[in-house]
Amino acid sequence: MNAPSDRPAQRRDRLVARAAAQRAALGQAVEPWRQPLAHLDQGLAALRYIRRHPALIVAGVALFAVFRSARIVTGLRRAWVAWRILHGLRGRP
């Protein structure tokens, strides 16, 4: 009576051991990808956050425009000062 009931138990044990070996092999194969996939996941989370808050895009573009124009204004001021100095030096004997 015990012999027929042992076969399913033995088969189950073999399948469980095989599944454990496959999980271990898969874990080793995936390990080099763990860090890059984590970075990708963080990037996707950031994109989802920005997508839910479109005002952040507008604020970012506005800040970029302000700082870029501030650089232009600073450059124009410096050019104006340089021109005034050169113009003033030219008029002197």
Secondary structure elements and pairings:
Elements: H1 2-30, H2 34-52, H3 55-91
Whole-number tally of structural domains: 2
Cα end-to-end separation? 124 Å
Helix content: over 70%
Shape: rod-shaped
Describe this entry's structure for a reader.
The chain is mostly helical and 93 residues long. The chain folds into 2 domains: 1-52; 54-93. It contains 3 helices and no strands.
Q: Can you give keywords for this protein?
A:
93 residues; mainly alpha; 3 helices; 91% helix
In short:
Helices cover 91% and strands 0% of the residues. The protein has 93 residues and is an all-alpha fold.
